[in-house]
Every structure is written in C-alpha cells, then in structure tokens.
Amino acid sequence: MTHELSLPFMGCGTWAWGNRLLWGYDESMDSQLQNVFNLCVSHGVTLFDTGDSYGTGRLNGRSEQLLGRFSQAYVGSNKNDICIATKLAAYPWRLTRRSMVSACQSSAQRLGRNVDLVQMHWSTANYAPWQEGALLDGLADLYEQGLVRGVGLSNYGPKWLQWVYKRFAERGVPISTLQVQYSLLSTYPVTQLGLKETCDALGIKLIAYSPLALGLLTGKYSEKGPFPKGIRGLLFRQLLPGIRPLLACLREIAEARNKTISQVAINWCISKGTIPIPGAKSVEQARDNIGALGWQLDAGEVAELDNAAGSSGKKMVQNIFQTK
Question: What pLDDT, on a 0 to 100 scale, did the predictor assign at position 4?
Fold first, then answer.
C-alpha cells in the first residue's frame, strides 16, 4: 500500500518559515529560503518538518505553501528523496476522524502534493484525553487510504506511545517516527522518560526537534547580549548564565575538531541515534548545519558533553504537551 519511508541522518525544521512572532519572518525572505531548501536537498538533507499551524495569524500554513513551491521548483540531485513531514494540530475544534483527514487534505493542497509523513502535532492526554482517540483514528485512516506514506507522533512519552502503537497495530498501521524536543539542554525525554529504548523496541525512529535549543547552543549569544528580540531574548537571559560550562565544553571540542559549536551540538544528537531537525533561515545557517554530517564524535567526547549537560544549572522548558 505504501512504501517504506527512507529518512536521512538529519532533516530541516521549518517552524521559522512564516512565523513572525518568534522568528521575525517576512515575505522578503522567500528567495533566501528557496536557496536554503535547494542547498539542503542537494546535500542529502531531504526531510523537511512542518506543521499546518506554522505561520503567524493569516500566515498559518505558510510554511507548507513555501515547501510546496520550493519542492516543485527544485531541479537537482535527490529530488525523488524529498520527504515532507507535516504535523496536524490537535485544535479543540478538531473532534472527529474526518477532521484529521480534511486537515491533511488541506495540507496537501497547500503543498501541491501528498504529505509523505503525517504526524499528530501533540497529544491531548494532558488536558482533553477524550478528544484523542478520534484524531488518531483519522491519522490511521490517512495511511489506510494511501493518502500518506507514513504516520508519526510528536511530544508523546513512552506510556502514551505504547498505547497508540497498540491501537494502530490492531489496524496494521505502523508508526514510523516520534519527535520530541531533544538537545544537550533537553535530555529529559531520553534520559528520564527512556524514550529511545521504547522507540528502538517498537522500530520507531526518534526525531530530535530544537537540537540547538532555539539557538542557545550555537555559541552566538553571550550573557552580555545582544539577545534576540521577544520571547527568545527573555529565555536566553535566563538560561545563558547557567549553561556556561556546557558552552565551554562544546567550544573546546569544536576547536579540537575544527568544527563549529552548532555542528558539535547537532552531531551529539546524531550520535545518540536520533534524527535532528535544526531550522535554517539563511544559507549560512543551512551550510553550518550540513557541516554536522560526514563525521562523528567519539565516545569520550560524547561522555564529556553528557557530563557537562548533566551538571548544567539550567535546562530548556519542556513542551507543555509532552506526555509521560
């Protein structure tokens, strides 16, 4: 019915493509974003993660529209490997399985092509558990009807993941991926919840979103500032003093390896067996991210980073929708 999704070592997150509020998007960035897309695909970074809620206000769905436009315009190597993964939001007004099928059809319309991997953006377990069953059934319907090549989840913990896995298995629907916030500043889903072991046991690939912790792990920002505008700036002021030892450890390994701090932070995610999806708004950022591929941290360096992360005074705030 559907053929196996082939996923690269790293993908590209497109939350910023259309988001004014947090990332300062405006339409003049579109040609630069097309170049980011082209560069990624040509280097084998063929997984693009988006969501039907990505964009601000009237720009909701903007990220999907751009990805549709870019993938149609792209000519070059790896074109057939492009995999567009979209997350459907569990909005309070989406209550039936049909609402999820319609939502995915709207995404496909914005993309001008079928969605490759459809994902549940978040679980409603923490606040409206009664809503979730129908939405999940809708995801499984999409797979059964051949409208998508794979199904994934986002922000689920092991207990809830196993519940969905069982529900889907009864219908012969496999779960391809699970994505959670995972970085040196957000180890909770893997170290405390044990998600990697659960995913391995169930044959599910773990996708790491925000592997650079919204930019904190790029080494670009110091406690003295300047800070990014808005909410990110407030967060950075709060977290930077407590992560000094971690940034120092990243810097030391980056210098020894002749890599950038971002590349080391992303490579750490890869060495943990996850598929990181760092975002990129410029060709420079995309090139930097791509430099995390083609080499690997050794066990000693990984252990050093683990220790530095473990003793970090501050951690990223967990997604409020993350379930147990």
Answer: 67
